[in-house]
Each structure stands twice: as C-alpha cells, then as structure tokens.
Amino acid sequence: MVIYLCSSYFIPMKHLKLRLILLSLASGILLSLAWPERGFPVLLFIAFIPLLRMEDLISANPERFNRFSVFFYSYPGFLLWNGLTTWWIVNSTLQGAIMAVVFNSLFMSVFLSFFHGTKRRLNNRPAAYLALICFWIMFEYLHLNWDLNWPWLNLGNGFASYSHWVQWYEYTGAFGGTLWVLVVNILIYSLVRLSLDSARIFASPQSHHAITLITFITIILPIALSYTIYYTYHEKPRPVNAVIVQPNIDPYSEQYVLPPLKVVGRIMSLAGSAVDSTTNILVTPESALQQEMWENNMENFESVGLVRNIISKYPNLNIIVGGSTYYAFRPGEKIPHTARKFTEENAWYNRYNAAIMVNRYPALQTYHKSKLTPGVEVLPSYNGFKWLEKYAIDLGGIVGSLGTDSVRKVFNVVNMPPVAACICYESIFGEFFAEFVRNGAQVMCIITNDGWWGNTAGHRQHFTFAHLRAIETRRSILRSANTGISAWIDQRGDAHEQTKYWVPAVIKATVNANDKMTFYTLHGDYIAKWMSWLGGLLYIGSLAVWITRKRIKN
C-alpha cells in the first residue's frame, strides 16, 4: 500500500509512465508475498489495488495512452509475480520455466486488457468491475481446461496454507476463493478512491460507511463461517489402515539409471517394515516401476512379479504403484491422436504415465494420467502438429505427448472401501479430482515425484494444494511422493506425519473413508462456468454499446 500511495500521489504526473510501472510492480510484489507456502494470504485482498489504480490512470489520460497500454503496463507486475513464485521450475527445465513465466504473465495481461476495453466502452464502473471478476475467473477456468494448462497461480490456491479459512470450499471449490479475492480488492479500492481521489466529492459519508461495512463483512464472514465448519466437522469412523512409502530415489541420477528391480526392491524393503496383516493399502509413488511394461502382457514383467510377491504374503492387501506403461493397439481398435507408429511395422502404440492397482484379483488395474504436464507429457499432437513432439522436455522416463483416460477410474479393491489415485500434477485440478469421488472413491491417493525442483517452494506449494482437494471433497488423502512431502491428510484438510525432503521414509496411518458427496463434488466448477457465460455476455454487450454509440455519432 505504501508503494501504491507513493507512486500514485508523490510521483509527479509528468512521470506518469514511471508511476504506472511502479504500480504494476507493487501488485506483483504483493501477490508474491501472499503466495503459499510461506506467504500471508491477507495480502491477496489488496494485491490488485495497484493494478486497478494503474488502469484508472490510463483511462483518465486517453490522449497519452492507447488501447494496448493496460497490457504493456500490467505485464511487468504479472511477470514479477510469476517469476518470484514459480522460478523453481528452472531446476528441472530452463525452457519450461521461461515458457511458464512468460506466457502465463501474457495471458493475465490479456484478460486485464479485456476488462479495460469493456470499462471504456460501457462507461459504467460497477458493470466494468463485474466484468473484471468474470474475465479473470474465465481466464482461470480456461487455463484449467486446455492442453497447455498452468493453473498453479489461480487465486483460490492462495489460501492453501491457511485452509482453516476456506472450509467452505466444499461448496464452492477454489473458484470461491478467486471470487472472494477479487470482490474484496474492488471494495477496498472503492474505499481508497472515496478517501483519496476526487470521487469523494461526489460521495456522501453514508455511502463511505456502507462500503466500509460491506468490505468488513465480506472479509470476516467467510473466515468466521470457515472456522465454524472446521470445528463442527467430525469424521465418521470408517477406518482404513494404510502404509505410505517415500523411497527418495534421485530422479536425475538414480530413478532412470538404476536397474528397475533395484528401484522396486528399495521401495518394497521400506514398505516391508510397516506392512502387516491388518494393512488395507500400500501406496507408492509415481513412476516407481521403470521397466518398459506393455499392458498387453504386463504380468510377465519382473517388477510386477516382485509386487505380486507381497500380495502372496498378505492376500487382503491392495497396492497402488506408479509405472510407465505402453499399449500396442490391436487391429481394428481406434487409434488416438497421441499414438505412435512402430518404426518397422504398420502398427501403433501409446505411452502412459500410469497408476497400477495390484491385489489378489487376477487382472492388474491401470489408470492413465489424464491431466498431463505441459511441455513434458503433452504437446499439440493432432495432424499438422506432430513435429512439436521433438521439442518435448526430457526429464527421464517417457517423453512427449502421452495417452490419457476419458474416465476417472476407481479401483476394485479387497477388504476396504473404494479407492482412486490421481497422479502428480492432477492434484491441482479441483473439478477433475472430484470426478474420482463422484465415481465412487471413498479414499483418495496422490502419487507424485516432486524431486525435479530441488528443495524449493515448488514441492511445498504442490503439497499444500492437496489440503484444498481434501476440503472440496471431504476425502482423506494418502500422499506418496518419491521425494518431497509424503503425508496423510484428513477430511478437514489437516496434514499429518509429514515427511522431510530428501529423506527416505515410511508412514503407517489409519484414515477414515467417506461416502458422502459435497456440494462441490456434485456440481464442480459451477462458479467458473456461470462467470464465464456472464463475462461473455458483458463483453458482447460492451461491443454492442460501442457500435451503437458510434452509429449515433455518425
């Protein structure tokens, strides 16, 4: 706020462009200081105020700026926010980090420019601010639902480390948090304008007091409601005995270099110290099985046999293990656009990042990761874009566009309630995660490999997002990371027995299953869908108003 006041009122108007850049950077700093896992999310409630002031100054000086000025002056702030919060991607891939930071900042500036254009055409501040809310939520929703998705910085994720404040996500999902942040920013900025700008001339004390009261209620009431939900929520006893393994296999120097049987052996030796006849489920991390296993005859692979040996000792045990798998399409089967052609025969195959369920049932069950990591696991692979495959980022294992599943699979299990597993990056996607629950999962697993980013905020941010998924669905979560943070998370979003980074560990836990569906589980991202439609109507309406005025003038 100090930067806002200094740049707005103490830098002369002749240095207006400097003022705009400082306002933009102020928002970038505030957003960064608010972000998990060590930020303070209260700052989110004022982080957009400098940007709103920047846009107002551009609007008030049309002779000095053009229609693209909001884009250019907001970009430094968004670039700073993206850079400060997601710089750690560089530990795994320099080009991936550059693309994520540069393009995500660009998209943010584009949607803020849509708000500026709509405000200019409508000449109606309340309608324009409604458009801002709609456009930003539309941006976040679109960023969840295309191949090159990157929803890491969706505003609702900003409360992940303060999940006691957002227990109502079971009704709204994380988009409720985005809506909350934007509304409060607009209300506080309205107060700032009334207090410091010429707008106070036209405002009565009553309107100032009314906005102050509304702002206070808008901030405090959701937090109070959240704590009420938190302290009155009680899990029903439906115990599931679980073992979670964190093998700590270096993804750069070991995981794809060591013999696959040695990797599996290390995982199973850790598990062996904790598994007993009462254990219902053993959860191991993403990509634990690194043999090139063909799903057409996966039982023939030694890695699977080693896992099967544990089942022979504990017939009521269910094991979830991550693996890299392949599937050769049989004659007559539909060939998806992600399929690859064998070099020496006229046949096709697909590659997958898979979660595999092993239990006493004869057939192995597989779920294929379906929200793929952009640039690593997915690139445009439709006709005419296959050439982009050669630019896929190689982090070991399977590279390039992978195959996916169209259904969020729930595994058939022995002697326990239904369970499902989402893989790594998938745990950021609220509605996607809820589909597993809607399909019958009563306990959720997250299997991941967070070692790519080093001991940075990356793996800690990823872990905190799982708190939100537990609240949205009211499901206990068993999280197994190759390295990073493994833990179990209860239905209120509280994490237990968190492991340390780069330390092999095994967790023995008892969690409760739940078969009740939350409102959010049943209805998904309804806020985003409604706001996207409304945003589209406002944008079209603003164009209609502009065209009408232009015709009248002519």
Structure description:
- It is a single chain.
- With about 550 residues, the protein is of the alpha/beta class.
- It has 2 domains: about 1-230 and about 525-554, no CATH class; about 240-525, Nitrilase/N-carbamoyl-D-aminoacid amidohydrolase (4-Layer Sandwich), CATH 3.60.110.
- About 45% of the residues lie in helices and about 15% in strands.
- It is built from 15 helices and 13 strands.
- It has helices at about 1-10, 15-35, 50-60, 70-85, 95-120, 125-145, 170, 175-195, 205-230, 260-270, 300-315, 430-440, 455-475, 520-525, 525-554; strands at about 240-245, 280-285, 290-295, 320-330, 340, 350-360, 365-370, 420-425, 445-450, 475-480, 485-490, 495, 505-510.
- Strands 1, 2, 3, 4, 5, 6, 7 and 13 form an 8-stranded mixed β-sheet that branches. A 5-stranded mixed β-sheet has the order 8-9-10-11-12, with helices on one face.
- β8 (about 420-425), α12 (about 430-440) and β9 (about 445-450) form a beta-alpha-beta unit.
- α8 packs antiparallel against α9 and α10 (about 260-270) packs parallel to α11 (about 300-315).
- The longest helix is centred in the first third of the chain and has 29 residues, at about 95-120.
- The chain is globular.
- The two termini are about 45 Å apart.
- Residues about 380-395 have low confidence and may be disordered.
